[in-house]
Amino acid sequence: MTQRVSSMVFGDGNHGFQVGLNNAPIQASFHYPPEPLEPTPSPFASIPFRRDPTFVDRGDILNQIGRQCSKPASRVAIVGLGGVGKSQLAIEFAHRFAARSAETWVFWVHASTQARVIEGFKSIADNVKLMGRNRPDTDVLQLVFDWLSNVRNGKWLLVLDSADDFNVLLRSTSGDNDDGRKLVEYLPQSPNGSILITTRNRDLAFRLTGTFRAIHEIGPMVHEEALKLLENRLGTVSDKNAAAALVRSLDLIPLAISQAAAYIRKRAPRTSLVQYLSEFRRSESKRVRLLSQDAGDLRRDLRQDGGASNAILTTWQVSFDHIRSRRPSAADLLSLMSFFNRQGIPESLLGPPRSYSATQSISPKCTTDPHSQGSNNETRNEFEDDVAILRDYCLIMLSEDAGTFEMNGLVQLAMRRWLKAQGLQNKFLEQYITVMASSFPTGDYENWTRCRALFAHVEAAAEYRPSENNLEKIWSGLLYNGGWPMEGSREARVQVMERRKAKIGADHPDTLTSMNNLAVTYGNQGRWKEAEKLEVQVMERRKAKIGADHPDTLTSMANLASIYRKQGRWKEAEKLECK
């Protein structure tokens, strides 16, 4: 039996129909009203940021990018730490490219989130007046992909800015892309177009370009470039020496320099370059405050939904968050490294094997059998994977011998601030001090080579003052072992001694130990009068508290006798030794 079917077709002026009685399925087709024909515009550049009049060239990098982007279906990436000027290079390149190639389209897509990428593709559809782009059932991503892939539509350059997060481009999305495809699949490889990518992640850059030859890794400026940027931003620099010192203190990082210049100009004449430098050098808390100020740069995307920041410390925290979400153990490693001196961080103090003893970790603690060969290999592999992701994000560097690591000093500062916000700073400080104390030998002659390699890290430890009493003892012991050739440790020991006097009293055994440690430091520096004065106080107080025959009192007497001998005061030394 043939089934009856009622069919109706409505034009664009109809929006529905009424049925009184019907015994068959109804098929209704509705058609969108015809879109008005829009003339195809001539190619133009859609760059959301104006050209920077204070821009400083970074060597030949823009010419290199230009040569690569001139090749069909090319993909080129600018990779570097946040704040080193990747987007600024891309902006300048896009403007130069547009000025040279008036017949070429220039598009800009911000790639920090999937929503921003989709928004960027919709903007392209609007710019080129694509038919059907406004229909609710249109896949705009596919529509733009098809248009870009058609060589008859002319040449184009697409800037994919801030593509830092793997999840944005390499995982499927929803909404306009409800077929589960990844956004990276909508980036054409057609011969009429080129894509320029800016990213903090070298691994992601490789996945998007397919070759390391297309990756341009940039770091901080060279000294002359940094000075030029500071001068351009300030308008004039009267004190060249102070300017040179400031850009060095800011690790030659463009965003930090721009931030400092904006701060100085905003507060001039009450704040000068010299005053800013003095304030910056005063303390870590002062540096944090200054580097948290907004630089006021209109050429940075500041939107809340995935935009950048004009403050350098905030900028890097985005990278820290990405790493924590992708690989928490790498975030742990970076946390520990942030307390070392920025140069010559030994692999032997980091792992493998790496133990976060008694500390709260960002990642779940992995329990493995330390006697298992397979476990050791796995630990080694885990460590190398952690190092790889930190290098991919340009947060650490390898030394020439590949046996030690380096970090940017401001990155370390930002990481410690991030840890403080997470409530983890004291935990990783404890780990750092414990690792250093267990690794640093005494200052005996046979240990000089190893001591020399670790001196800078002991000096870094002197900057941190633990509040917990047991950790303070470990810290004090570390400074004692490391302080024999170090002037900087004297101030730290004075601080320890004064704090203990105020906290537990001048006669407490721990306070007397601190006084003894400081006396030893004075003696090693040849400051015999200061050493003698302290040792006499320690000896007399120990006599009164624990008696003349107690081992600690006898040690004080021996130390004082040694001081007398080194001054040629033989009779006084012999008198003490006889006791």
Automatic annotation (TrEMBL):
Residues 75-234 form the NB-ARC domain. Transmembrane segments: none annotated. Residues 356-378 have a biased composition (Polar residues). It comes from Fusarium beomiforme. This is Kinesin light chain. GO terms for molecular function: ADP binding. InterPro entries: NB-ARC, NLR-like, P-loop_NTPase, TPR-like_helical_dom_sf. Residues 353-380 are annotated as: Disordered.
